[in-house]
Amino acid sequence: MVNRKDLNPEASPQAAFGARIRRSREAHGWTQEALSTRMGVSSGHISGVETTRKSSSLRFAKAADVVFGLVGTVDTFERQWHEMHNGSLLEGYPEYVGYQSRAAEIRLFESGIIPGVLQTQEYANVLADSAVQRGDITSDQASERVEFLIEQQSTLVRTPPPLIFAVLDESCIRNPIGGPAIMDAQLARLVEFAGQSNTSLQIAPYSMAERKPFIRLVYLLTLPDRSLMSYVESQTQGNLDRGLSSVLPLVKNYHQLQIGAASQAESVAMIEQLRKGIL
């Protein structure tokens, strides 16, 4: 074959991914052009991923799983992609997102920044870029982080939609991430979210003080079989937990948080006043 580049799967995780794409393609007797038609990407992109000249995306990995019949199996390209990109995501988070995509109810709390599922892409870009400037992640990982976030948000648009309960610390709406324009668009997104039929938005005001049971991000999921799980984060670690003895106290604390927080009407009014510069 003309211009065929030899691959070394052991050179890097990206090389292993690309070599597997080539093996799978050739096992089906497909050219790069034939695979590109099936996956909806250019043949040049197929070639680039196979030879590591181009990065694969989560969307690319999912499309490969569909084409090669791997959806629902253990050894998917999506799983390999997550393993390859865990450097930009906290431990347990990709697994959590998999459960979130099937959850019947989602409860979340965040402090300091708008939680990922409610972020605009511009807001998310600012956070990712700041992580690059701090040296926490690379530029490629920043792009992957934002792409993963957009994919995560897309899993919540389904029929029937999950019930989503969001309680945000007041600091989330007052912390001017990205400047006035980006922050105003982000606050508008929160108002839009509150207006949906399957959502609830509350602001936990500063006046709750020590009565707030959480100080960092908390996600609580109710799955279709009514089982519960939690995902909580520290600055450097994420923890996914399915044990009732540890999840139920978080659920109880979340209910107490909702009781003490401002109502949705009060919360939306607070956001609108903040946008107008009144609050």
Automatic annotation (TrEMBL):
Residues 21-77 form the HTH cro/C1-type domain. It comes from the Bacteria. Gene3D superfamilies: lambda repressor-like DNA-binding domains. One of its GO terms (molecular function) is DNA binding. This is Helix-turn-helix domain-containing protein. It comes from Streptomyces jumonjinensis.
